[in-house]
Amino acid sequence: MKKVVSIGMVILFVAAVASIVLGAQPMKSKMPTKMVLSKSSVELNMDMRKLWEDHITYTRNYIISALADLEDINKVAERLLKNQDDIGDAIKPIYGDEAGEKLAALLRDHILIATEVVKAAKTGNNEDLSAANKKWYANADDIAAFLSSANPNWSKTVFEDMLHKHLEYTAQEVVSRLKKDWAADIEAYDKGHAHMLMFADMLTDGIVKQFPSKFRK
């Protein structure tokens, strides 16, 4: 949500400046009042983006460390798992402790299964890779189901598609690094990065719509 509004504000600003330079009358904003962000909604969006950005950043760090047998792999894994707890903690003030713990558990499984995917891909064990992938996608569907049950603004189908795409981008990073196709690896991360920020914005938008009284300007 923040991303869309920010772009809109930039467009309005540029248009206003251009009209002044050209001697025309400044364009008047027709943005509806409901799109004006409150401080609390902006803070929520920034927090969500930071948490999910950490999610893909430390996932990437883990992939790099695991495939290259780097000595920092255990510390990276520790930090990555902490991120899942942080995401769970972030929703506790809104949905309660039980919901936060449930989401954290589902996300921890998401990461632990990802380590199985990386290991199987690295060793070339197609049977293990197929089994891990099956669990990975089932877990993604479980996360989507849990989130959609908490908020009517969060579509289970949409979230399944979003999370499946996240898995695809992550898998592309693994495969590209194994092939030493560094350009494809970077492209997969960049696309996955933008995708995850979109996911964070969708979470924020759903929460603000569900609890408008908490986020009034």
- Following the backbone from N to C, one meets helices and strands in this order, namely HHHHHHH
Overall strand count: 0
Number of domains: 2
Which whole number gives the mean pLDDT? Answer: 87
Count helical runs.
7
Distance, first to last CA: 15 Å
Binned, the helix content reads over 70%
The unreliable regions are 1-35
Shape: elongated
Main beta sheet: strand number and arrangement?
A: none
Provide the gyration radius in Å: 20 Å
Helix/strand/pairing category: mainly alpha
Proportion of strand residues: under 5%
In short:
The chain has 217 residues and is mainly alpha-helical. Helices cover 82% and strands 0% of the residues. The protein folds into 2 domains: 1-36, no CATH class; 38-215, no CATH class.
What would you say this structure looks like, in words?
The chain is mainly alpha-helical and 217 residues long. The protein has 2 domains: 36 residues, no CATH class; 178 residues, no CATH class. The chain is 82% helix and 0% strand. It has 7 helices and no strands. The longest helix has 30 residues. The radius of gyration is 20 Å and the shape is elongated. 29% of the residues are buried. The N terminus is likely disordered.
Task: Provide keyphrases for this structure.
single chain, 217 residues, mainly alpha, 7 helices, 82% helix, disordered N terminus
Write the layout of secondary structure elements.
Blueprint: H1 2-21, H2 39-68, H3 73-95, H4 97-123, H5 126-150, H6 156-178, H7 182-210
Helix pairs in contact: 2-3, 2-4, 2-6, 2-7, 3-4, 4-5, 4-6, 5-6, 6-7
